[in-house]
Amino acid sequence: MRVIFSGNEAVARGAFEAGVTVATGYPGTPSTEILENFISYPGVYGEWSGGLSLLNRYPLENEL
Questions:
Q1: What is the pTM of this model?
Q2: What count of other Cβ atoms lies within 10 Å of the Cβ of residue 12?
Q3: Rounded to an integer, what distance in angstroms lies between the CA atom of residue 39 and that of residue 62?
């Protein structure tokens, strides 16, 4: 079965298939649809952010 994705849907699907499990976005931007689509996949977490608060909770991989 063929599935046609928009660009933002394809980015969300690619992130999910690559193993990304946490994402954040700023509402009202052109990338809003990416996070909206990403959080529809099982086992992922997404949150709207107005600043750097998520970076403080989820350190970069090389900082672990």
A1: 0.71
A2: 26
A3: 25
